[in-house]
């Protein structure tokens, strides 16, 4: 039996998410062969993800965890981490590959009515299927569910312009670096770092949840006196 979703679903995003997750269900075997269920020791993304996770003090939610490769990897490094994915097939694959690591069936918008708070959100190529409106909604949901000073690491397909593109599983969107930074800052995040991937179209961005008036010390909000 599937684990109940974290919460109810923002209706506007539900139909799109169903289409995307059913496409991932259909392509589960091919995507699993491509991504693997574990992280290769030479994976160039390790540096960015491990360094980000080391700076998170508390629970991490791996959103769109797929095969669970990063969830399992971070759990193996001692982080408290939960994986969540709207594709039932991927949740099954991840649970089989990483027994002992918790995985739930849900999409990013399902966090909207949850009362759980997280110290970090990893969204590794999992918000790529959201159009501009759904991405902005998702980022506000993440901002709302993040502890103050908590952080998000989000990877995306980057290009000179924001536009849809053909992705083998489901339609996806690429974003300009400026557009993704603006969407994060409109949602209330402060962008800390932009990382370039191993090819021009791969990028990742780190941002933290700040409170208006926060003073940052080494990229983190200083303790508040009120
Ligand atoms: C390209 S895979 C990446 C998987 C994993 N993050 C990794 O790097 O191995 C994209 C994943 O995002 C999930 N996904 C798609 N739409 C999502 C949504 N709205 N919320 C959360 N996850 C989503 C898919 O089911 C799929 O498992």
Which helices and strands, and how do they pair?
Blueprint: H1 11-26, H2 28-35, H3 46-54, E1 60-63, H4 69-76, E2 81-85, H5 88-97, E3 103-105, E4 118-124, H6 132-145, E5 146-157, E6 163-165, E7 172-174, H7 177-186, E8 189-196, E9 202-209, E10 216-217, E11 220-221
Parallel strand pairs: 1-2, 1-4, 2-3, 4-5
Antiparallel strand pairs: 5-9, 6-7, 8-9, 10-11
Bound molecules: S-adenosylmethionine (SAM).
The site of S-adenosylmethionine has 22 residues, from helix 1 and helix 4.
Q: Could you state the oligomeric state of the chains shown?
A: single chain
Strand content is 25-35%
Structural class: alpha/beta
Spatial gap, N to C terminus: 46 Å
Task: List the bound ligands.
Answer: S-adenosylmethionine
Number of helices: 7
Task: Give unreliable regions as ranges.
Answer: 1-9
Query: What is the CATH class name?
Result: Alpha Beta
Query: What is the percent of helical residues?
Result: 25-40%
Instruction: Write out the CATH superfamily name.
Output: Vaccinia Virus protein VP39
Average pLDDT number: 90
Instruction: Tell how many strands the DSSP assignment holds.
Output: 11
CATH-defined architecture: 3-Layer(aba) Sandwich
Could you give the order of strands across the largest sheet? 3-2-1-4-5-9-8
In N-to-C order, the SSE pattern is HHHEHEHEEHEEEHEEEE
CATH topology, by name, is Rossmann fold
Name the shape in a single word. Answer: globular
- Evaluate the radius of gyration: 16 Å
Major sheet size, sense and barrel closure: 7 strands, mixed
């Amino acid at each position: 039996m599937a684990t109940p979703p974290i919460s109810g679903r923002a209706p506007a995003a539900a139909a799109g998410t169903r289409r995307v997750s059913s496409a991932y269900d259909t392509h589960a075997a091919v995507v699993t062969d491509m991504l693997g269920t574990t992280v290769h020791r030479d994976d160039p993304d390790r540096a960015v993800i491990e360094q980000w996770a080391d700076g998170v003090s508390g629970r991490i939610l791996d959103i769109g965890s797929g095969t669970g490769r990063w969830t399992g990897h971070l759990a193996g490094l001692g982080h408290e981490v939960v994986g969540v994915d709207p594709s039932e097939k991927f949740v099954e694959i991840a649970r089989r590959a990483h027994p002992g690591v918790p995985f739930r069936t849900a999409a990013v918008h399902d966090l909207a009515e949850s009362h759980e708070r997280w110290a970090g959100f990893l969204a590794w190529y999992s918000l790529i299927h959201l159009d501009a409106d759904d991405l902005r909604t998702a980022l506000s949901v993440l901002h709302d569910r993040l502890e103050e000073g908590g952080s998000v690491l989000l990877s995306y397909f980057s290009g000179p312009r924001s536009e849809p593109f053909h992705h083998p599983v489901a339609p996806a969107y690429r974003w300009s670096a400026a557009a993704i930074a603006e969407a994060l800052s409109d949602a209330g995040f402060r962008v800390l770092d932009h990382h370039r991937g191993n090819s021009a179209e791969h990028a990742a961005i780190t941002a933290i949840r700040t409170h208006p008036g926060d003073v940052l010390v080494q990229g983190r909000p200083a303790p508040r006196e009120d």
